[in-house]
């Protein structure tokens, strides 16, 4: 499927995919169907934290870093929230004796922020403390990476990041290029020498707060790249992470970094597991640091369908799984 200039069609497609991701009956059916294993294997690294860490070690031997993501977004009851916390605690404990350079990606909805924001946000402090304890003195960019979700929670998520950062914990934040506010949010974080993962943005929003066509989103992404690789950002100790599979954007990043004196170890690219695996080798061949976003766990349906929302060409995998 090609979008062309049909940004309205794309927004409708992404909205549909998000609705499907949040459908509990559909999730139950898809995750329990014998016919959908191919779809799960394509997008999901492993089923549990131990296996995910083993995968990360194999990636490390290839020179690739890992961003761990436990599949458990939109937790809507205490049982699911407690399970998510337990899995992340287990992963962080395992990282203490591992050799991998790991980011631990956590969404507010993982922790129950969709039920009660303050209660859910409070769970980030013990996770950040545990990760700090597990990785102190180790080389690498270890951090609790706070994922960004739909526009209604962006402001609260940004403030959560700033509070954790001010408390001295190893945290980073994901910013979305499709949102018009991101330039100001990024400028504030650059001033504090923080860490940012820049994504295009998978959650459609109204035109008053979001760029609604792909050309505008890409142009904004490139402008944000230039801010992240500015002399001011480098001097502040800021650490840029670029999540993009677009080879033209990657070329721009490499050129801008070289132009502004960023050495190869001072920024990195992040790629999604299951999407264009050849890109990692290409980027590493150019001297770039590469991190792979590795989702793990059993609740794979919401994640997989969102990836199809971002990359509609993957819809054939969905059709092949259910037909």
Give a short synopsis of this structure.
The chain is an alpha/beta fold and 323 residues long.
Describe this structure in words.
By secondary structure, the chain is α/β, with parallel strands linked by helices. The chain is built from 15 helices and eight strands. The protein has helices spanning 7-21, 24-32, 37-43, 49-61, 78-95, 117-122, 124-135, 154-166, 182-191, 214-228, 231-236, 247-259, 278-285, 301-310, 315-322; strands spanning 65-70, 102-106, 143-146, 171-176, 195-199, 239-243, 268-272, 290-296. An eight-stranded parallel beta barrel has the order 1-2-3-4-5-6-7-8, surrounded by seven helices. β1 (65-70), α5 (78-95) and β2 (102-106) form a beta-alpha-beta unit. α1 (7-21) runs antiparallel to α14 and α10 runs parallel beside α12 (247-259). The chain starts with 6 loop residues before the first helix and ends with a helix.
């Amino acid at each position: 499927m090609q979008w062309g200039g049909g940004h309205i069609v794309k927004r409708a497609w992404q909205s549909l995919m998000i609705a499907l991701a949040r459908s509990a009956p559909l999730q139950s059916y898809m995750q329990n169907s014998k016919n959908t294993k191919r779809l799960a294997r394509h997008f999901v690294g492993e089923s549990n934290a131990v296996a995910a860490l083993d995968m990360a070690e194999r990636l490390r031997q290839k020179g690739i870093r890992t961003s761990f993501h436990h599949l458990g977004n939109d937790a809507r009851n205490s049982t699911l929230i407690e399970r998510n916390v337990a899995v992340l605690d287990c992963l962080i404990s395992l990282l203490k004796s591992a050799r991998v350079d790991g980011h631990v990606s956590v969404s507010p909805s993982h922790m129950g922020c969709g039920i009660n924001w303050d209660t859910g946000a409070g769970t980030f402090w013990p996770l950040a403390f545990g990760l700090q304890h597990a990785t102190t003195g180790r080389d690498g960019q270890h951090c609790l990476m706070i994922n960004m979700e739909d526009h209604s929670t962006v402001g609260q998520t940004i403030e959560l990041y700033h509070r954790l950062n001010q408390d001295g914990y190893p945290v980073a934040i994901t910013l979305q290029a499709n949102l018009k506010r991101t330039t100001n949010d990024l400028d504030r974080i650059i001033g504090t020498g923080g860490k940012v993962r820049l994504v295009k943005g998978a959650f459609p929003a109204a035109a008053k707060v979001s760029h609604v066509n792909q050309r505008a989103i890409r142009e904004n992404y490139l402008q944000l790249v230039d801010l992240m690789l500015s002399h001011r950002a480098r001097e502040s100790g800021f650490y840029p992470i670029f999540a993009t599979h677009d080879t033209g954007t990657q070329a721009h990043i490499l050129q801008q970094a070289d132009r502004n004196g960023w050495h190869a170890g001072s920024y990195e690219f992040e790629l999604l597991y299951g999407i264009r695996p050849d890109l990692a080798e290409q980027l590493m061949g150019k001297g770039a640091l590469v991190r792979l976003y590795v989702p793990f766990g059993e609740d794979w349906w919401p994640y997989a369908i969102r990836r199809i929302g971002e990359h509609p060409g993957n819809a054939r995998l969905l059709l092949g799984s259910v037909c």
